[in-house]
Amino acid sequence: MRMRLSRQILSLMVVTCFHSCARGETPAETWENISPYFSVPKEYAGKFGPYRSPLIFDDNTPVKTPLDWRRRRMEILADWNREMGAWPPLIDQPKVEYLQTTRRENFTQHKVLVEISPSQMDGGYLLIPDGAGPFPAVVVPFYEPQTSTGQNKQPLRDFGYQLARRGFVTLSIGSPGGDARKPDLNSLEIQPLSYLAYVGANCYNALAALPQVDPKRIGIVGHSYGGKWAMFASCFYEKFAAAAWSDPGIVWDNTRGNINYWEPWYLGLDARLTRKPGLITADNPATGAYKSLVEAGRDLQEIHALMAPRPFLVSGGSEDAAARWVVLNHAIAVNKLLGYDNRVAMTNRPAHQPTAESNEVIYRFFEYFLKDLK
Fold first, then answer.
1. pLDDT digits (tens, 9 = 90+) for 205-241
2. What is the pTM of this model?
3. What distances in angstroms separate CA 156 from CA 150, 225, 365, one per listed residue?
4. Per-state percent for the chain, helix, strand, coil, to nearest 5
């Protein structure tokens, strides 16, 4: 039977987490807490479902060596960027303008404007722990940055705040232009979800340029909309050291309204057409890059594979149940080819809403891979 921490034990961990983290936890203890989630349940072990293996080139030849994988990785990137639109050049040192500074508990909060694209600034919050550093850091994207920093009443989505309390620099940002359904793409011809990934990469660069941050220990985490954003940013920008995606929907699924990659604010943008929000139907068909990617037989297992050998955690809820291990087995296979184990993890809960227990695993995941493994 697969090992699992009991709900009672995890609840106790949540209540006492801040104090235990302040005392310090050994890497072995942290790993003991999270290691069960790196094990594939017996019923899904060795199963790959109908998804095409990332370890097959477009011409159907197999990937046999790590060198082959580097070429295959470049092929996947080229295929997807051709459909979604290529990124403009990244900003090496994005501007960060400090607007307001506030003391909170054991960290300092800065209200900032960050250069997310050339000549485009976006509001956010930069949280810096007390101490000399350099610290590990995490980018936290969501609809708006207040939720991620615990400044409103939406519970259990305050990743930026919770991680700052645990000794991470965090940068929480919101939708470019302020409207997730009509993001400001800075006049670029690019799918919005790819643009969000580009924004995430520039936020990485903004953090990496700070003297308080260790650029080799920067991760990204998001929930739902933010989970999709975090997934694409971490997979398409290789400098992110680790990532956690909370219930984004890690494969195409046209039957579930929350796994709506077909919408024009994700991958369904087509300037010539206007589709109504909602499920794909004969009267409301798929459009944009989503349509062409599906017709080409592509799915998100190719994107997950781009993370290898960097670790990632799927914090699964209603959209990413345990059966999604069938998809994640493809990323595990890529990591095995590269000589790595324990790089792919998943937790599961019944509802889309995060729980204190699922979030605790996220925090310990980052503590282990960004703080303990220096």
1. 999 999 999 999 999 999 999 999 999 999 999 999 9
2. 0.93
3. 9, 15, 16
4. 35, 20, 45
